[in-house]
Amino acid sequence: MSAELIDGKAFAADLRKTVGRHAAAFAQKAGRKAGLAVVLVGADAASEVYVRSKGKATIAANMESFEHRLRADTSEAELIALVEKLNADSAVDGILVQLPLPGDLDEQAVIAAIDPGKDVDGFHVESAGRLMVGREGFVPCTPLGCIMLLKDRHGDLSGMEAVVIGRSNIVGKPMAQLLLDANATVTIAHSRTKDLPGVVRRADIVVAAVGRAEMVKADWLKPGATVIDVGINRLAPAEGETKGRLVGDVDFDGAKEVAGAITPVPGGVGPMTIAVLLRNTLVAAHQHEGLEPPEGL
Ligand SMILES: NC(=O)C1=CN([C@@H]2O[C@H](COP(=O)(O)OP(=O)(O)OC[C@H]3O[C@@H](n4cnc5c(N)ncnc54)[C@H](OP(=O)(O)O)[C@@H]3O)[C@@H](O)[C@H]2O)C=CC1
Ligand SMILES: Nc1nc(=O)c2c([nH]1)NC[C@@H]1CN(c3ccc(C(=O)N[C@@H](CCC(=O)O)C(=O)O)cc3)C=[N+]21
Ligand SMILES: [Mg+2]
């Protein structure tokens, strides 16, 4: 193996520790803990796992966790009514509505109902707009976690060629904006991109956020490239397994022989998402109490 492993899990554990320390100090000053509300509609098995691990991490970081589980047949009006109740609840600093929503619930309408001051996911149009024009606001957790790992490894990203594969509102687009803000030269690839391997081969930095198991191959990579694998894909169980393996969007075993550095799945970007969510929630809590958010968070 030639690539260095980018240990997102360890980085995230450090960040959670720092957040936990600041959260304890916040509770002292404010006379209450910072609070995160997570709303889960329906009983999606994968989402259950995220919600549980988020709840545990929140409590371990000296913050409060409020979980709201709603039936899969919840109406949009009921869901928005809950969001409005959480907007008005002074114990709640951050609101996360787990996506995707089941059935024909309108995700944009539900996100629009979240108070932008509690939008710790950074999915509200106000947050997206602020990121786009370079004003302070909540940045989506997954791309922010990725840029933290990249800056930790490279320091200055100025002039580097970055290729982001995927253009979703929650990963690809904000990721590209953060790389642009860091003065990288950014290309966004997607399902209509011609010659994706050729585009990826130019990249010093590859961020894969596609949702296709092991799609990015070793021979697409420029030797020495830094590879950030956002994908979370569950393979079908092999013989003798009850649960399939979790893999990313990059063919890790091949890519690790060519890349300079690579994030594993699991243990890469996923843990960063949760750590950044707690960080964003603590920042929101400071804002709600009129306190200056801690330096260097
Ligand atoms: N680790 C973490 O914390 C998180 C992980 N994820 C994971 O990241 C992945 C991406 O998530 P998300 O952005 O929500 O996914 P979306 O499905 O919303 O977006 C996928 C993007 O990939 C593009 N795409 C699909 N097929 C191809 C292809 N063959 N070639 C090139 N581009 C393609 C799509 O293009 P087009 O726009 O043209 O359709 C689209 O822009 C998933 O595996 C998800 O589970 C997501 C969030 C957090
Ligand atoms: N409103 C909203 N915000 C989100 O941020 C959001 C969402 N909806 N819907 C689903 C996706 C996905 N996502 C993950 C977070 C952490 C891990 C994670 O911690 N993964 C571990 C492994 C977990 C396991 O083993 O099951 C890892 O990669 O090491 C994965 C995926 C957040 N998302
Ligand atoms: Mg999506």
From TrEMBL:
Keyword field: Amino-acid biosynthesis, Histidine biosynthesis, Hydrolase, Methionine biosynthesis, Multifunctional enzyme, NADP, One-carbon metabolism, Oxidoreductase, Purine biosynthesis
A biological process term (GO) from this entry: tetrahydrofolate interconversion
Chain residues that bind NADP(+): G166, R167, S168, I232
Protein name: Bifunctional protein FolD
InterPro entries: Aminoacid_DH-like_N_sf, NAD(P)-bd_dom_sf, THF_DH/CycHdrlase, THF_DH/CycHdrlase_cat_dom, THF_DH/CycHdrlase_CS, THF_DH/CycHdrlase_NAD-bd_dom
EC code: 1.5.1.5, 3.5.4.9
Entry-linked PROSITE patterns: THF_DHG_CYH_1, THF_DHG_CYH_2
Cellular component GO terms held in the UniProt record: cytosol
Catalytic activity: (6R)-5,10-methenyltetrahydrofolate + H2O = (6R)-10-formyltetrahydrofolate + H(+); (6R)-5,10-methylene-5,6,7,8-tetrahydrofolate + NADP(+) = (6R)-5,10-methenyltetrahydrofolate + NADPH
One example GO MF annotation: methylenetetrahydrofolate dehydrogenase (NADP+) activity
PANTHER family: C-1-TETRAHYDROFOLATE SYNTHASE, CYTOPLASMIC (PTHR48099:SF5), C-1-TETRAHYDROFOLATE SYNTHASE, CYTOPLASMIC-RELATED (PTHR48099)
